[in-house]
Amino acid sequence: MTDDRTLVSRILGGDMQAFRILVEQNERLVLHMISKLVDAAEEREEICQDVFLKVYDKLGDFAFQSRLSTWIATIAYRQAVNHLRKKKIKFSEIPDERVFNNRAVEFENPESILEEKDIEQYILNLVEQLPAQYKSVLLLYHVEHMNYQEIGEITGMPEGTVKNYLFRARKLLKEKVEKQQQT
Amino acid sequence: MSRMTEEELQAHIEKGNTLPQADAKAYQKVFIALSKTPDVKSSPDFVNKIMALVEAKRKRAEQLDLISMIAGITGIVIAALISIAYLKVRVDLSFLNALGDYKTFILLGGLIIVVIQILDKKFVRNKLLN
């Protein structure tokens, strides 16, 4: 893995192979980030492309105050949010747990007792029903292994809010799992 | 032993501790599921598409730079010609005869500039980029 400073210097010096490495290293992160916020699969790839074009344009402004991947994830998050706003898709700053509870009912199947592997899928389905901010925070923490500060930087939320969202999301999911197992 | 709060339970599970309570087991399942990588993939030629887009953008920017440079130089030349015509300036090139006496100095100066440029490109700029 090429370190951030070397990679950025090479790209700014006109080395396109270095930019290819940057895309390959961050493709997964950007795609995951966008997929948590944008439901329409056909729009995701186009947004991902726009993210990397923006990264290329703005790379000279990157001041190494965070990891390069955190900076790229910030661009991805903002790009996705702007896309939702353009499409006039509601992106509320305050997640509505009531909506989640109502939607989650659709996934509950009291007639079947889920096996271990089904429970995992059941939880992942529930995650998809969570408000966008919850999904983003869960992804960045549990899959991308980012810390509270980095997640706060990406999403523009205070660290306390990040911790609170993580806690509430896990608690909501745990309650659903318990309820499912009691049936 | 007093019952753990939800925060404490989550902290224990995150550390990888195994707890006997039913809600701890439910949390364990949640944590395991959350750590799974999402099942989304980009198209196989995704990176190539990005590279083609960036390359096209770079070429457009280079063309724009070239067009701006040509337009700038043409503008300056036209402005100079109009000014000369309007002000009826007579260009006196007799100073070139005087410069002829310093031919060696002028050539040496040019040579030094070229050497400095080569050294800068080879040693200074390359070092900064790497």
Architecture blueprint of SSEs:
The complex is a heterodimer of chains A (183) and B (130).
Chain A lengths: L3 H9 L3 H22 L3 H18 L9 H19 L10 H9 L10 H14 L2 H12 L4 H8 L3 H24 L1
Chain B lengths: L5 H9 L7 H13 L11 H42 L7 H5 L3 H27 L1
Describe this entry's structure for a reader:
- The complex is a heterodimer of chains A (183) and B (130).
- By secondary structure, chain A is mainly α.
- Helices cover 74% and strands 0% of the residues of chain A.
- Chain A has helices spanning 4-12, 16-37, 41-58, 68-86, 97-105, 116-129, 132-143, 148-155, 159-182.
- Chain A starts with a helix and ends with a helix.
- Chain B is mainly α.
- In chain B, 74% of the residues lie in helices and 0% in strands.
- Chain B is built from 5 helices and no strands.
- In chain B, helix 1 (6-14) crosses helix 2.
- Chain B is elongated, with a radius of gyration of 36 Å.
- Chain B starts with 5 loop residues before the first helix and ends with a helix.
Question: In brief, what are we looking at here?
Answer:
The complex is a heterodimer of chains A (183) and B (130). Chain A has 183 residues and is mainly alpha-helical.
